[in-house]
Amino acid sequence: MNGSDSSSTDSGPGARRRSDATRTAILTAARERFAADGYERATIRAIAKDARIDPSMVMRYFGNKDGLFAAAVALDLHLPDLTQVPRDEVGRALVTHFLDLWEENEELTAVLRVGATNQAGAERMQGIFRDQLLPVALQVCPDPEQVPTRAALCASQLLGLALTRYVLRLPPTVALRPEEIVAWLAPTVQRYLTAPSP
């Protein structure tokens, strides 16, 4: 941004448009930088350079790197409506959806990588699954009081797969074909979601 802004022009629709454009540029640069470098190596200075703005503007909009990361990774998992899926197929539907999502979303992999090593990233992952996975689990769980536990167990399988396949890249997990992963994981996720409590 240039330095010609003054207090007399720092309000109104034009200023809001500039502010929105600056914020969007910062977030776009941050998503790309976090995905490429990971949380620890990505710097405010590099993100500002990518966005073609002064680093102080990043701080002005987001406070610090944690705040920027939290804003940049507001991910929508686009989870399926399980009420439209036959009850004995919900595990397969959820695993298939997650696998499709992880296969094509490097940003989600970056969030998981950061979430495993950084508090801000962990909180963002917690928020994503709390806000998006819990409502889906509620659609099919036999006991509403068990929804948080059952959703967490589903997350343990789905995130465990993502960690070993896309972050740690364990060769046996990477070698699995998608249909094999679905065949292995779907029955477990199905049991977590719909089976009677043990």
Summarize this, please?
The protein is built from ten helices and no strands. By secondary structure, the chain is mainly alpha-helical.
Secondary structure layout:
Blueprint: H1 12-41, H2 44-51, H3 55-62, H4 65-72, H5 90-104, H6 106-115, H7 119-138, H8 147-167, H9 171-175, H10 178-194
Helix pairs in contact: 1-2, 1-4, 1-6, 2-3, 3-4, 4-7, 5-10, 6-7, 6-8, 7-8, 8-10
* Biggest sheet architecture: none
**Average pLDDT level:** 88
Estimate the helix proportion, in percent: over 70%
Strand content: under 5%
Q: Based on DSSP secondary structure assignment, what is the total number of beta strands?
A: 0
Overall body shape: elongated
* Radius of gyration using CA atoms only: 20 Å
Count of discrete alpha- or pi-helical segments spanning 4 or more residues: 10
Unreliable stretches, pLDDT < 50, 5 or more residues? 1-9
Oligomer: single chain
Give the termini separation.
60 Å
Task: Write structural notes for this entry.
Helix content is about 70%, strand content about 0%. It contains ten helices and no strands. The chain has helices spanning about 10-40, 45-50, 55-60, 65-70, 90-105, 105-115, 120-140, 145-165, 170-175, 180-195. Mean pLDDT is about 90; it is low at about 1-10.
List keywords for this structure.
198 residues; mainly alpha; 10 helices; 72% helix; 0% strand; elongated; disordered N terminus
